[in-house]
Amino acid sequence: MNTTQMMAVLKQSTIFGSLEESFLDTLIFLAYPETFAADGVIYTRGEPSDGRFGMILSGRVQVLKKSGEVVCDITPGEVIGEIALSETHHKRTMTVKAAEPTEILIWNVEHIKEQIPGVWKRLLKLAWTHLSDYSEYIDE
């Protein structure tokens, strides 16, 4: 995906869409794209987050219960991996896999905190919302 296409997805994102274009440029500069084949595991429950989170650029991913049952689908413009950034032990709370070929922009949260501090607050708010949404599935 080229920079123009990445910018379009960022602008449509709930968490990033209202940022000034210069901040969106910084997000693209700080990110690296990663591609996953269908059924490719993006995050595994219990693994360290390593300070990384991402946003779906294309494709679709699924959040899975411990049993493997699908909790929800996540589509382009949505953020993944933010809960582990705010969780005490910085471990992934759910397994996330690509439901189809998927491209994700990946960031290191420390770089985001340094360059665009306001985004960290948005990520924390999103993490708490998602944690509330997924809390009944985390121990299953």
Automatic annotation (TrEMBL):
Alphabetized CDD domains for the sequence: CAP_ED (cd00038)
Residue intervals of the Cyclic nucleotide-binding domain: 15-105
Source domain of life: Bacteria
Cellular component terms per the entry's GO annotation: cAMP-dependent protein kinase complex; cytosol
Pfam families membership: cNMP_binding (PF00027)
InterPro entries registered for this protein in UniProt: cAMP-dep_PK_reg_su-like (IPR050503), cNMP-bd_dom (IPR000595), cNMP-bd_dom_sf (IPR018490), RmlC-like_jellyroll (IPR014710)
Protein name per UniProt: Transcriptional regulator, Crp
